[in-house]
Amino acid sequence: MSGGIIRALAWSVAAVALLAAGWHLLGKVDYDTQPTAEVPSRPTVLPVNEADQALQEGLQWAQAHNTTQHSECKDALGVGLRAAGCHRHVTAQKIIPPLVRDGLTLPRTVDCVAAVHAHYEPQLQDMAEQGDHHAASVWARKAVDPLVRQCNNIDNLRILRDVHEPLGRLNIILARVRVGQSLSEADLVRLRREYPEVERFRQDPMRTNYLATAENLFALMGGRQKVFPLALPGTAREEQCAALAQQLAGIKKAFHQRLEGLAPNASAASTAASSSLTVANTQNASQDQILTNWARTEETRFCRIKQFALENPQ
Predict the structure, then answer these.
(1) How far apart are the first and last CA of the chain?
(2) How confident is the model at residue 299 (pLDDT cuts 50, 70, 90)?
(3) What does the domain layout of the chain look like in residue ranges?
(4) DSSP state string for 172-187
(5) Of 102, 182, 270, 306, whose CB has the highest number of CB atoms within 10 Å?
C-alpha cells in the first residue's frame, strides 16, 4: 500500500519536471528569426487561351477583308475556330428587326405573324448560309412556331370585339327594319364604321355571317347606296377621287376669281382677300354666300369619299 503511494508520487514529480522543461525550451525559441514560406508572385504574362485567340484572329481577318458573306469565310478559312470568328463578324453585320409583341402595335394576327417572321427569318437564313440547316430547323420549330401560335390568339380575342358584338347590333337593326322602322343617324354612322372593319377581318364563319346579314339589310333598305351613298357602283374609287379633286380645284379657282373680280384693288394678296370679302358682303353677298357654301360642301364630300376609299380598298 505504501509502495503504491510512493510510486504515484514519483510519477507526478517526473511529469511536473517534464512540463517545466518543455515550457523552458519554448521560451527560448525566437520566432522572428525562423524562416517562413515564400509567397509566389503573380505571373507577369497571363496564359493565352488558344480558342479565344483563334476566334479573335478570324474576326480581325473578316474586318480587314470587309467580309460580308459566309461563303467568303468558308473559302478562305475553311472550318475551325478562325472560320467561326469570321462567321460571327458576318452575322453581326446582318440587320435583324426587333421582336415586337405589343398588342397595341400589332392589333391583328397577320401583323403579329409578319413581325415574328421579320425577326427570325434573317437569323434562319444566316444559319442556312453557314450550312447549319439543322440549327435552322430547330429554331423554326422551337422559337418561331410557338410565337406564331400565340399570334393566332390576337384574332381569336379580337373577333369578340370586332365581329361578334357588331353582329349582335346588326341583327337588332335588321329586325327593326323588317318591321318597318327606319334607322337613326347614329345607327348609320355605327354601321358605316363597323362594316369596313368586319370586311377587313380574316376569313371566319362569324365574319361570313355578318356580311350575309348586312347584304339582307341592304336589300331591305333599297340597296347599299342607302347606307354608303358615296360608294358609287361601276366606277373605280381612284377615278372618283381624281374627278372630284379636279372639280374641287375648279370650284376653288372660280371662287377666288369671283372674289378678285369684286375687289376694287387687288395689288397685294393679303389686302385683296379682306377687301374682296368686304365687297362681297356689301355688293353681292347672297351670290358669294351660295358660292362659299357650295365650295365647302364639295370639299367636305370629297374628303369623305377619299376617307371611305382609304378604309375600303378594292
Answers:
(1) 129
(2) low
(3) 51-92, 109-155, 158-226, 237-311
(4) HHHHHHHTTPPPPHHH
(5) 306
146, pLDDT greater than 80: yes
Residue with cell 476566334: 55
| Interatomic CA distance for residues 253 and 289, integer angstroms | 16
Grid cell listed for 59: 474576326
Query: What are the backbone angles phi and psi of residue 112, rounded to the nearest 5°?
Result: -65, -45
Question: For residues 263 and 283, is the Cβ–Cβ distance under 8 A?
Answer: no
Provide the residue type at 181 as one letter: Q
Whether the full predicted model's pTM is greater than 0.70, yes or no, is no
Distance of CA 287 to the CA centre of its chain: 54
C-alpha cell recorded at residue 65: 477583308
Q: How much of the chain is in helix, strand and coil states, percent to nearest 5?
A: 75, 0, 25
Alpha-carbon span 260 to 258, nearest angstrom: 5
279 contacts: CB under 8 Å, gap ≥ 6? 262, 263, 264
Side chain identity, residue 110: V
